[in-house]
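For the sake of transparency, this paper describes our internal protein records without simplification. An entry from our holdings is shown next, in its original layout:
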Amino acid sequence: MRYMFKVFAGAAALGAATLGLTVAQAQQAPLKLTLFGQPSVNNDSVWMALERGFYKEEGLDITYRLFPSGTTAFQAFQSGQGDIVLTGDLPSVQYFFRVKGDYRTIAAIERDAKGYVAVAAKDIKTPKDLVGKTVATRVGSTGSWFVSEYLTKNGIDPRTVTVKNLDTQILPTALCGGEIAAFFIWQPVGSRALEICRDHGGVADPADDDENAHRSGAAGAWRNKFIRAPHYGEHAAARGILSSTFETSMTWDRVRDFHKKITAIARDTIKRVTGRDGTVTCRFTHVYPDGPCLYFTFGGILDKRIALEQFMEVLSTCTAAAVEHGGTTTHHHAVGRFHRPFYDKQRPELFARALRGAKRELDPKGMMNPGVLIDP
């Protein structure tokens, strides 16, 4: 039996009761459930229940996967993934009637329209100003329903307004860049748009107008250290200092859990290999509609007698862990000889055959990077 939540509240006790568990049974064998949700204020109760251990108290082992919208979550749900979907009214009802299977909507947790917002450019003063313009939402979501209702109730023919389908994380950038005139969606996307769009009411750093702003302040301090770091490499290695990076990529729905696991593995590996605690940090270097590039930086103290062996073991273990947990073996650093064993596991054989064919025609002597992507 799989379920759909229209929205979420009440959390763990409801989940245990719905599935017919007693507290004693739950304590003996925690029930594993995967919840699909969105980065919406309507799902705050989920975060609180996870943080405070309410689910564990009810004998539930919960995995919470984030999706840009309920519509996107249902696409994965329909393929057989997940147990419970937390979503708005419209996707829930549409899915219920569209799918013939053992699914049901089991709870309406929150009835509140204040979590939904419309954010528009400064030149949009009245509903009529939207005529001939493009507004965006996640088509099929509750935000999509709000667009239709808003236009109709304000006497605007929906056919005179272009509705563009965009995922939630893209909306602020599309508005700031002038690609759309407005968007309808849930919080905190609206607040985020106001933060990053100076022309739409946000407050920008005055230093942003300075073409050299990236060379001063916090940005400048980070930039200078980042540029100089490679030049310290030889000195660090000579002193037994472990300092390096690895990068990977992951989809948004899994990035939170992925980051937590890889960070823990990296720290544990440094401790195991060197006998000392190390440091592990992570930042996003690239962000896409599907997910980010996670760029990990790690450090520690090596035994100078076996420094290279220790370094390679830490790097290999971390890279293998990233691949094992569903990440890519690399990102913008591209594939080199170190990454080749991991790349072979992820690369389709058909692509390898196509590349071999191209190299036979363009590089018949195998002079260009022999053995890096495929065997020569």
Q: What stands out?
A: Confidence is low (pLDDT under 50) at residues 1-23. The longest strand covers residues 292-301.
